[in-house]
C-alpha cells in the first residue's frame, strides 16, 4: 500500500506538476498543496504541513557550501575515524547482534557497512541534525537548483505525516534526510522497515527500523550478498598506473597475476574489481568490488564513500591502511584552476568547485597519460603547470 501511495504522489500530474520553482513562496506552496490534494492527500493534512513555513536561508547556505568534501582521503578519513568511534561501533555490533544478523540474512548487507554509515551519518544516532525537516524540504523544492529531486520528497513527507510517521516538528539534516542512517522521506516510504514490530517506521528512535531500512535500501540499489566491497592491496613498483581507477574493471585473479597482493586477506576470485588510489600511487591502494559502487547511491561524494567503505573494513577486522607518502594536495584555488583547464580541454568535470570527485579524477588520469606522467588520477602542481 505504501508503494502504491508513493507512486501516485510522485507521478506527473498535468498542469499541476508544471508549478514553477522559485518566485513567490506562498504562491509556490499553494501550487504544491493543490498537487498534493489532487493526488489524494487530505486538504487538512496539507494545510497543517505547510502552516507557518518559510524558506530557510541556512539550508540554502549549506547546499551551496559543502567544503568538507574538498579534503583529501587521508585528511577526511582521519577526521572521521577515531579509536573511540571504532570501539563504540564494535560494542554496538555486539549489542544489536541479532538485528545485524537479520540485516545480513534478509538483505545480504554486512554489518560493517551499516555500522559505517550509522557512524558517519549521525555518530551512531547521537547527532541527527537540527534542521526542521519539512522546512528544509520545502526550501530545497522551492529553490531552482534541484526541484525535481526535492518536490517529490515534500509529497512523500506529506504522506508520512498522513500515516502518523512524520511529526510536524521532525528535525534532521539540512537536505531533508531523517533518522539514524539519514534517509529521505521517499526512500523511507518505499524501503522503510518496521524492524521492532510496533506498526510504524521510525528511523529517529528505533535502531532496528533504522538499520533494517538502510540494509533494504542498499539491497534495492544492487548490493550483492556475501561479496566484499573493498580490500587494501600492495602494488608492485612496476604497476601500470593507467589501469587504475573505477573506469577499469578486471577479474580479481587477473589483478593478482599482475602482482597485486591483498594485504591481510584473501583474494576473491571470479569477481570484477578495480584498483583505487585515492591519493595516487604514493598513497593507500585498494581493490574495490561491485558492492563498492553501490555505495554511491547512498552518497555521491567520492571521498565520503571511499572513507565509509574503508571504515567498514576496519569495523570487521582489517588493519589500518598504509598511508604512504602522497604528493601534497592542490590548494582550493589550484584545484579550481585545474578543473577550469580540464573543462576547456573538453573533459566533463562537473562543477568547478575545487572537489576532486570521480569525474575530475578521470579527466586528470587521461591528461596525465597524454602528457606522459604517471596516470594515477592524483593531481599535482606539475600537472597543473603542464596544462
Automatic annotation (TrEMBL):
<dbReference type="InterPro" id="IPR023346">
    <property type="entry name" value="Lysozyme-like_dom_sf"/>
</dbReference>
<dbReference type="InterPro" id="IPR036366">
    <property type="entry name" value="PGBDSf"/>
</dbReference>
<dbReference type="Pfam" id="PF01471">
    <property type="entry name" value="PG_binding_1"/>
</dbReference>
<dbReference type="GO" id="GO:0008933">
    <property type="term" value="F:peptidoglycan lytic transglycosylase activity"/>
</dbReference>
<dbReference type="GO" id="GO:0009253">
    <property type="term" value="P:peptidoglycan catabolic process"/>
</dbReference>
<protein>
    <submittedName>
        <fullName>Lytic murein transglycosylase</fullName>
    </submittedName>
</protein>
<keyword id="KW-0732">Signal</keyword>
<feature type="domain" description="Transglycosylase SLT">
    <location>
        <begin position="25"/>
        <end position="312"/>
    </location>
</feature>
<dbReference type="InterPro" id="IPR036365">
    <property type="entry name" value="PGBD-like_sf"/>
</dbReference>
<feature type="signal peptide">
    <location>
        <begin position="1"/>
        <end position="17"/>
    </location>
</feature>
<dbReference type="InterPro" id="IPR043426">
    <property type="entry name" value="MltB-like"/>
</dbReference>
<dbReference type="InterPro" id="IPR031304">
    <property type="entry name" value="SLT_2"/>
</dbReference>
<feature type="domain" description="Peptidoglycan binding-like">
    <location>
        <begin position="333"/>
        <end position="387"/>
    </location>
</feature>
<dbReference type="InterPro" id="IPR002477">
    <property type="entry name" value="Peptidoglycan-bd-like"/>
</dbReference>
<dbReference type="Pfam" id="PF13406">
    <property type="entry name" value="SLT_2"/>
</dbReference>
<dbReference type="InterPro" id="IPR011970">
    <property type="entry name" value="MltB_2"/>
</dbReference>
Amino acid at each position: 500500500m505504501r508503494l502504491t501511495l508513493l507512486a501516485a504522489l510522485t507521478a506527473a500530474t498535468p498542469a499541476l506538476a508544471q508549478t514553477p520553482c522559485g518566485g513567490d513562496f506562498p504562491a509556490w506552496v499553494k501550487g504544491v498543496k493543490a498537487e498534493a490534494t489532487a493526488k489524494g492527500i487530505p486538504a487538512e493534512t496539507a494545510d497543517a504541513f505547510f502552516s507557518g513555513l518559510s524558506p530557510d536561508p541556512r539550508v540554502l547556505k549549506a547546499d551551496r557550501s559543502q567544503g568538507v568534501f574538498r579534503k583529501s582521503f587521508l585528511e577526511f578519513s582521519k577526521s572521521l575515524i577515531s579509536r573511540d568511534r571504532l570501539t563504540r561501533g564494535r560494542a554496538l555490533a555486539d549489542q544489536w547482534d541479532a538485528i545485524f544478523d537479520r540485516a545480513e540474512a534478509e538483505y545480504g548487507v554486512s554489518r560493517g557497512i551499516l555500522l559505517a554509515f550509522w557512524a558517519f551519518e549521525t555518530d551512531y544516532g547521537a547527532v541527527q541534525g537540527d534542521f526542521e525537516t519539512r522546512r528544509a524540504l520545502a526550501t530545497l523544492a522551492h529553490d531552482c537548483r534541484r526541484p525535481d529531486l526535492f518536490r517529490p520528497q515534500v509529497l512523500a513527507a506529506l504522506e508520512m505525516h498522513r500515516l502518523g510517521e512524520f511529526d510536524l516538528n521532525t528535525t534532521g539534516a539540512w537536505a531533508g534526510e531523517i533518522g539514524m542512517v539519514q534517509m529521505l522521506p521517499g526512500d523511507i516510504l518505499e524501503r522503510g522497515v518496521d524492524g521492532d514490530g510496533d506498526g510504524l517506521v521510525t528511523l529517529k528512535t528505533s535502531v532496528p527500523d533504522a538499520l533494517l531500512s538502510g540494509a533494504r535500501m542498499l539491497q534495492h540499489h544492487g548490493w550483492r550478498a556475501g561479496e566484499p566491497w573493498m580490500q587494501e592491496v600492495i602494488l608492485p613498483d612496476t604497476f601500470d598506473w593507467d589501469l587504475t581507477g573505477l573506469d577499469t574493471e578486471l577479474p580479481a585473479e587477473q589483478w593478482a597475476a599482475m602482482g597485486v597482493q591483498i594485504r591481510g586477506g584473501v583474494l576473491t576470485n571470479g569477481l570484477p574489481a578495480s584498483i583505487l588510489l585515492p591519493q595516487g600511487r604514493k598513497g593507500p591502494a585498494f581493490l574495490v568490488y561491485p558492492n563498492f559502487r553501490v555505495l554511491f547511491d547512498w552518497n555521491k561524494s567520492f571521498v565520503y564513500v571511499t572513507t565509509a567503505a574503508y571504515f567498514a573494513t576496519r569495523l570487521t577486522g582489517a588493519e589500518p591502511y598504509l598511508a604512504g607518502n602522497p604528493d601534497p594536495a592542490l590548494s582550493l584555488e589550484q584545484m579550481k584552476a585545474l578543473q577550469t583547464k580540464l573543462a576547456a580541454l573538453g573533459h566533463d568535470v562537473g562543477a568547478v568547485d575545487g572537489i576532486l570527485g570521480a569525474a575530475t579524477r578521470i579527466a586528470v588520469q587521461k591528461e596525465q597519460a597524454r602528457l606522459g606522467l604517471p596516470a594515477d588520477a592524483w593531481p599535482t602542481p606539475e600537472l597543473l603547470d603542464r596544462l
